[in-house]
Structures are given as structure tokens and as C-alpha cells.
């Protein structure tokens, strides 16, 4: 296992792009994936999250899941961090994927709350603690009640932080600034909190979050990076201006289930083929028109 300095292991602030997984004729489109990663690195993001929700992780088999992580690590070449999505609703599966990501050279693991089986808070504690014991990777928990039907409780997060030194942060998706305040109050200033919704990045950072796992940065990496960096540097007006400029885009990228709109947007911009795996399907004509209009208004499509 690769050893990393404590500073590198515990620093996951800034902008992390939740990468889409581009397909062509049912398989990973390696050429498009390479181009997307280069756009992200040149756009100034701090890290990449392959095979998360936006990467359609539930429809990739194990070999594909691991291959996407390996390709991301290889293409990044250490220029930004790789926070690999390796969670699952089976503890055994999550351990397998996390260890594979560690072997591939990922910098950290993003661990989503188990979905569908709805464990108790004690079950969540045991699940994440078992995974943490089986890897040296730093772990960012991922609470997204809208998809999982369960929230990782603040007290559970505290127990996990105290019991597992490599559980160092949480991605908050679908939460509120109040929950971020609660986490910060209970876990202190060193625990990483990343926003999981682009439209809530600044509100969350105002009460203690230190960055975002962004969907929008797939198409506007520099703007999102600048917004986050500006707020962190105390340049509030600059950050607010970027937030207001792109707020309609932040909202319309969730007009249908993620990652349908972001893949549609990337296809409209000529970056990928618009291909999904069932049960995801293309956008409705009405929503597609609304998204296209917003992309034009944001200067991302020609009128």
C-alpha cells in the first residue's frame, strides 16, 4: 500500500468534479474520458471524483468500476487528487472496491451511505468502521438522503471520526446550512465538509464547508474553482458574482435525475456522446429546451 504524508492524506478542500462516465456503444469512451479529464485539470480543479453518483456507479460492473478509477489515476498523473467513489450498500462490496482503488493509486475514497437496505445508525457506524479498518485511504463519508433514504447522523459522524483516524470528512448533499453548522460545532475545524449541491456551495461555505463536489464543474471547471477559491480567500463579492451568474445553470443541471442533464449538456457542447445506461433515459424535449436555453444564456452554447 502506498503511504502518504499526513498533510496530503487530510487535505481535501476546494473543488472536486464528480466526473461523468462517457459511453460509446455501451462501453467506456476512453478518448472522451481523457479529454474531459484534461479539461478539468486545465480548469484548475483540486480533484476528481470518478464513479460517484454522476459517474453512474450503480450501472457499472466491478471491472468497469475499477477500470474507470485506474484510468483516472493514470491520466491525472498526480496533478490533482483522485477521490474514488467506492461505496455500496454491501459492506463487502465497498471494501473490495476501496481496496482496488487504493491499489490503483487513488488519493481517497468517497463512501456513500448504504442505499435501499436502510441500516440503523448503529449499522451505519459498523459499515463505515469496517471499511475504514480495511484500507489506509482517507475516507470522505457521503450523506445524500434523497437517494439513500437515510441520513448519516451527526453523532454517528462524530463516533466514526473518533474511532477511525482515516475518516476525515463528509460530503453533504441534500442537507441544509444548519446541518453543516451542527457538524462543524460537534467535529471541530479540522474535519472536512464538502458541499454536494452546486447551488448550496456558498451557503455551506459560509457556515464551515471547505469546498464542493461539483456536477457543474464538468462543463465550467474554472468558474466553479474560482468561485470556491474566491470565497475561501475572503473575496465574497467575487464569489457571489460567479454564484449569481451560474445559479440558473446549477439549478437546471438537476431539472431531471443527475447525471441525465449534465451528460446532455456535455453532448450539446460536443464533448461526449449522449449515451446512458438503463434505467436512465434521455431528457424530455421540454426540459432539454430549457437546459439548452440556460447553456446559451451562460455563454456555453452558440445562440
Structure in words:
The chain is of the alpha/beta class and 303 residues long. It has one domain: TIM Barrel. 47% of the residues lie in helices and 14% in strands. The protein contains 13 helices and ten strands. It has helices at 6-9, 30-42, 62-76, 91-104, 121-133, 145-148, 154-163, 177-187, 201-206, 221-232, 236-252, 260-268, 285-297, and strands at 14-18, 23-24, 27-28, 47-49, 81-85, 108-112, 139-143, 167-172, 192-195, 211-214. The strands form two sheets. The protein has an eight-stranded parallel beta barrel, surrounded by six helices. A two-stranded antiparallel sheet has the order 2-3. α7 (154-163) runs parallel beside α8, α10 runs antiparallel to α11 (236-252) and α12 crosses α13. The longest helix is centred in the C-terminal third of the chain and has 17 residues, at 236-252. The radius of gyration is 18 Å and the shape is globular. Mean pLDDT is 95; it is low at 1-8.
What keyword list fits this structure?
10 strands; 303 residues; single chain; 8-stranded parallel barrel; two-stranded antiparallel sheet; TIM Barrel; 13 helices
Order of helices and strands: HEEEHEHEHEHEHHEHEHEHHHH
- Share of residues in strands: 5-15%
CATH 2nd-level architecture: Alpha-Beta Barrel
In terms of per-residue confidence, which ranges show pLDDT below 50 for 5 or more consecutive residues?
A: 1-8
Amino acid at each position: 500500500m502506498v503511504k502518504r504524508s499526513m498533510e496530503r492524506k487530510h487535505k481535501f478542500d476546494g473543488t472536486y468534479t464528480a466526473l461523468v462516465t462517457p459511453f460509446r456503444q455501451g462501453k467506456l469512451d476512453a478518448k472522451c474520458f481523457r479529454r474531459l479529464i484534461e479539461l478539468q485539470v486545465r480548469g484548475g480543479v483540486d480533484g476528481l471524483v470518478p464513479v460517484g453518483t454522476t459517474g453512474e456507479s450503480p450501472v457499472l460492473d466491478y471491472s468497469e468500476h475499477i477500470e474507470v478509477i485506474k484510468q483516472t489515476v493514470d491520466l491525472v498523473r498526480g496533478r490533482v487528487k483522485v477521490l474514488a467513489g467506492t461505496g455500496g450498500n454491501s459492506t463487502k462490496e465497498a471494501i473490495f472496491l476501496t481496496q482496488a482503488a487504493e491499489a490503483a493509486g487513488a488519493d481517497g475514497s468517497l463512501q456513500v451511505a448504504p442505499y435501499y437496505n436502510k441500516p440503523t445508525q448503529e449499522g451505519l457506524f459498523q459499515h463505515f468502521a469496517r471499511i475504514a479498518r480495511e484500507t489506509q485511504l482517507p475516507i470522505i463519508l457521503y450523506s445524500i438522503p434523497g437517494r439513500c433514504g437515510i441520513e448519516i447522523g451527526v453523532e454517528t459522524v462524530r463516533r466514526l471520526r473518533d474511532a477511525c483516524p482515516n475518516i476525515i470528512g463528509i460530503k453533504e448533499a441534500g442537507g441544509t446550512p444548519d446541518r453543516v453548522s451542527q457538524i462543524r460545532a460537534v467535529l471541530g475545524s479540522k474535519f472536512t465538509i464538502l458541499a454536494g449541491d452546486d447551488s448550496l456551495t456558498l451557503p455551506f461555505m459560509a457556515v464551515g464547508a471547505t469546498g464542493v463536489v461539483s456536477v457543474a464543474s464538468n462543463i465550467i471547471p474554472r468558474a466553479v474553482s474560482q468561485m470556491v477559491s474566491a470565497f475561501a480567500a475572503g473575496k465574497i463579492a467575487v464569489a457571489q458574482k460567479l454564484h449569481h451568474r451560474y445559479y440558473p445553470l446549477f439549478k437546471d443541471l438537476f431539472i431531471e435525475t443527475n447525471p441525465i442533464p449534465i451528460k446532455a449538456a456535455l453532448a450539446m457542447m460536443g464533448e461526449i456522446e449522449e449515451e446512458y445506461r438503463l434505467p436512465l433515459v434521455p431528457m424530455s424535449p421540454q426540459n432539454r429546451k430549457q437546459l439548452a436555453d440556460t447553456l446559451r444564456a451562460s455563454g456555453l452554447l452558440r445562440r
